[in-house]
Amino acid sequence: MWSRNNVVTALAALAAALVGVAIALIFFWIPDDADQGISQKIFYFHVPIALTAYACFGWGALKAFLHLWRRPSGADLESYVAIHQGVIFGILTLVTGSIWARASWGVWWAWSSTQLVLFLVLFLFYSAYFMLRFSVEPGPARANLCAVYALFGVVLIPISFLAIRLANDFIHPTVFTSEGPQMEGSMFFAFCVAWAAMLALAAALYHVELAGKRLDTTLRELRERLA
Amino acid sequence: MSQGQYLAAAYLVVFVVVLAYVLIIATKLVRLQRDVAAIAELVAEREPPAELRAEPESPRPQVTLG
Amino acid sequence: MNGYARDVAVLARKDVLLELRARDALPALLLFVVAALVVFHFALPADAAELAAKGMLWVAILFTALLGLGRAFLAERQQSMLDGLLLAPCDRSAIWLAKTAATVVFLGAAELVALPAFALFFSALDWQTVAAVLLANVGICAVGTLVAAMALASRARELLLPLLFLPLAIPVLVGGVGASVADDPGRYLGFLALYDCVFAIISWASFEYVVTE
What residue segments make up the domains of chain B, in order of their start? Predict the structure, then answer.
């Protein structure tokens, strides 16, 4: 119990420190982008948030696989919390990506942006995960269903990515210039720091939410035993 | 909206979402505190019969001398 | 392996025969797909490209599949046959394979009506559209059968099935429309084949976990 609480505190402190350093680097250290100007700095949060969302979905799928294979008792809850974090970061990706599209290209949504469309599809898919989870009675059956669905999700990510790339050929001929700028050394370093910051933030939120849900379960069991 | 305002909007969204999370956690904490208080009451009600049985169950460290 | 194939054949044959005798779902599917095509004619403005109509064919197929999948496990659910099936000494994945095969047959029957109707209402078909439809069938039914089994367990199964199915069906749609519309369909047909392989394998492997505790 002591070591678990320490993990949460340590991660939160690490996340706070990294986010602070990242923002300082982004706004005070790296040079402005030549063609896009100051709004290019959105990239330093938008892409790490997207990558962190992928990481959360991957972690959720890993826990789901472990649940189906070895059946450890906590894996289902961990998978659920990871996917919850992934959806939160996915929504953030969509919102920051939309703002960036508006700043760069003047439109709030761009079907030609593979990343935005992929996140839209994943958002639909993982929202259905929650629909599934909350319309089935809690129990081993629900845990199995959600685990299988989480694994399907992680397989869907590359397949959808391919599909969207293929679709761009016949849907929208107008392609905006690519998102990832050529990064020189200092920009790359700031990007990595921002990425570490987002991962630490996701990890901290994950552990906080997991601790909360585990407390819920323990309290419910206690109440049942006492009543 | 100028470019700088779009930039600020993007970072503001991230900030607000994280703060919203903190708010949700705080609400949950209040609810958990209430639940723990309720359970503490339940335990207090059942304390007397539990006390009589408690003695043999609590481990007494055997202190050996020498 | 021989026993496995026999189990699959028996179960699939049961599903197809049940439907042929009852004849309640298949005529409805055929009528639905034709009605959908008529609706799409009215939904496309006058100067809509012929290509838009090809896209609509795929939408019609997808929603007809959804309709059929909603009833995929209906017999098992109504007569509690699923428990009986699960008690049977066959591999659980054989149930998935048999149900998928039967659904392919039904969807194929609907497409036998839909494709000529499309050629009549909109524009002539080429070999690439037909090939894409055949390939997409496998993927749609593979994923759809698994997802229908998932929806079985929920309280809102009719609502949940489309929600679970549509995001997974987007790549099929892209592959199918691309193959119908593009100049070189090879890439899209190859992608459909990839989707079929990948999702058939994971559906086959995970069906057991979906129906057991």
Answer: 16-51
Contact residues, A window 130-149, toward C, CB-based 8 Å cutoff: 131-132, 135-136, 139-142, 144-145, 147-149
Say whether C119 sits in a helix, a strand or coil: helix
Indicate which of C158, C201, C206 best probes the interface with A, i.e. most A CBs within 10 Å of its own CB: C206
CA distance A3 to A9: 10
DSSP string, A18-56: HHHHHHHHHHHTSPPBTTTBGGGGGHHHHHHHHHHHHHH
Instruction: State how far the Cα of A119 lies from the Cα of C89, in Å rounded to an integer.
Output: 42
Coil, strand or helix at A173: coil
Across A117-135, average pLDDT: 94
**Which partners does chain C have (≥3 C-beta pairs < 8 Å)?**
A
Mean pLDDT of chain B: 77
In this prediction the pTM is 0.87
Q: Are 3 or more Cβ–Cβ pairs between C and A shorter than 8 Å? A: yes
Range of the domain at C26: 2-211
Q: How many CB atoms lie within 10 A of CB C193?
A: 14
Task: Give the pLDDT score at A210.
Answer: 92
Single out the residue of C159, C9, C168, C37 nearest to residue A131, CA to CA. Answer: C159
Taking CB atoms and an 8 Å limit, are A128 and C164 in contact across chains?
A: yes
Please answer whether residues A146 and A132 qualify as being in contact, where contact means their C-beta atoms are separated by less than 8 angstroms.
Answer: yes
Q: Could you give the count of Cα atoms lying within 13 Å of B58 in the half-sphere of its Cβ?
A: 7
Residue C176 in contact with residue C131, Cβ under 8 Å? no
Share in percent of chain C as helix, strand, coil (round to 5): 85, 0, 15
Distance from CA of A122 to the nearest CA of C (A): 8
Residue reference for tokens 């007569």: C79
Do the interacting molecules here have an ipTM over 0.90?
A: no
At least 3 CB pairs under 8 A between chains C and B: no
Rounded mean pLDDT for each run of 10 residues along chain C, 213 residues in total: 82 86 84 90 79 88 92 76 73 88 93 92 87 94 94 86 94 93 88 96 92 78
C21 vs C69: CA distance, rounded Å: 19
Matching residue, tokens 């709030």 = A108
Determine the pLDDT at residue B5.
Answer: 83
d(CA C107, CA A213): 44
Which residue is listed with tokens 């016949």? A170
The count of structural domains within chain A is 1
Picking from A150-159, A167-176, C63-72, C86-95, which range would have the lowest pLDDT averaged per residue? A167-176
Q: Are A14 and A193 in contact (CB under 8 A)?
A: no
Cβ-based contacts of B43 with chain A (< 8 Å): 226
